Structures are given as C-alpha cells and as structure tokens.
Amino acid sequence: MKMPGMLGMRKRGIAGMAINRGVRSGMASKIIGPWDWIIAPALISLALTIVLATAFQPFGFYLPEPVSPFILAFAWPLIRPSYIAPFVLGALGMFLDFFWGAPLGFWTLGLMLVYASLITARTFIIGQEWIVVFGIFLLAELAFFGLCILLTTIDTGFVPRIWGVVEQAFATMLLFPVVLYLLEKYVHTDVRFQ
C-alpha cells in the first residue's frame, strides 16, 4: 500500500507539486550545435595536419601524413545534412591547398565530391554494420585518391609516385575509427532529428 504523497517515479518539489521528469525534460542538454560536430572536429583536423607535417623523425621514419579532412568529408554527411559543413569542408580543402602547396582547389574539389556522393547515398549507409561502412569508406577513399592522382597528372603532366599515394591512403585508412566514433556520438544524439 502506498502512503499518501508517494508518487512512485515522480517526486515532489518544494511546494508539494509533482515534478515531471518526462522524456522532454532533458531535451535542452541533448541539443548538439555546429560547434560540437563541425567546428571542433575541423579544428582538431587542422591541428593533426600541422602536427603530422612536422620534421620530426622518430627512429628515422617520417610521420604519416593522412588527409584528415577526408574523415570529416565522410562522416559529416552521414551524421546529418547541414548548410555549414560544406563551407567548413571547403575551407579545410583550401587550407590543405596552401599548406601542402597544391594547385588552388585541388583538395577542395576532392573533398567536396566525397561529401556530395555520400550525402546522396546517406539513406543507404545509415544503420549498416561497421564492416559495410568500412567497405564504403574504402571505396570512397579509393575514388578520392584516384581523382587526386588524375588531377595531379593533368596538372603536372607526370604521374605522382604511386607508393607515396598508397602510404598516404593507408595512413588515412588508419583514421577510420574516428569515423565510427563520430557516427556513434552524433548520429542519434540530437533529439530534434529523431
């Protein structure tokens, strides 16, 4: 038998009125803004690019130089369609153009094509097992670096060193757990998009 004043899962406030701890009460803490899933990862990607491009050689080996904005170009369209993400991705591509001395628009074009193709196929990829997402990641990466080789060959008239491209693609592939982390953290977090 319940005593008067006991409401089970509901609790009484100071004035004796029931406090409703329903589903929507925690909504304000669950809203994810652009800073959380766009700006902060973009700044981390910039920092990673700069740190891995240093002239530090542990044990005589060069540090790998993955194309870290590719991770964001893959994850952002799967997380949520956005108007801000393509502009930030374009800025990251321009940064890579200036930082690595590529022709203007080289990295931007590749990143934007990855973003556009994944925003188109978003509904087919969301909800798949991680191994399927990894396979699509490898296909997107192969197309991305194939396009980069083609654009470099057209621009310079020479085919770039293929082993260097394979090393860079392998280093970028090692960042795939970051894609899984971003997807797990942000795909179903914001209650406005459920």
Automatic annotation (TrEMBL):
Superkingdom assignment: Bacteria
Record keyword Membrane present: yes
UniProtKB keywords: Membrane, Transmembrane, Transmembrane helix
Transmembrane domains' residue ranges: 38-63, 98-118, 130-154, 160-183
Protein name (Swiss-Prot/TrEMBL): Membrane protein
